[in-house]
Amino acid sequence: MTKQSQYTGIAREAFSHYLDNTSDLDTLIERLREIELQILSDDEDETSSGIWFRFFEGDTMKTTIRDIEKDLSAPSHPNYNILMQGIAFGLQTNELEVHYT
Hints:
- The chain is α+β, with helices and mostly antiparallel strands.
- Helices cover about 50% and strands about 10% of the residues.
- The chain has one domain.
- The chain contains 4 helices and 4 strands; from the N terminus they run βααββααβ.
- Strands 1-4-2-3 form a 4-stranded antiparallel sheet.
- Helix 1 (about 10-20) packs antiparallel against helix 2, helix 1 (about 10-20) packs across helix 4 (about 80-90) and helix 2 (about 25-40) runs antiparallel to helix 3 (about 65-70).
């Protein structure tokens, strides 16, 4: 797994727009998938599995795009509030990281 610092700004912007209600979940997922496609196209290793996010120091969840899409798809989802708080905290403390496995 490698930290992808060059993509943190793009991810930060996408999450910020989502939290500010200036973009919807579909747009957030689309932006995150664009990051993933760019990283995958730069990598020549055929066994790679994709990207995941660490929202704050101590976050051990390794949240994938699929997790984000599932958890944020409905406010009634059990992990919705947890993920929203994690994203907000990570943006506020500038601890959001993009990782690649």
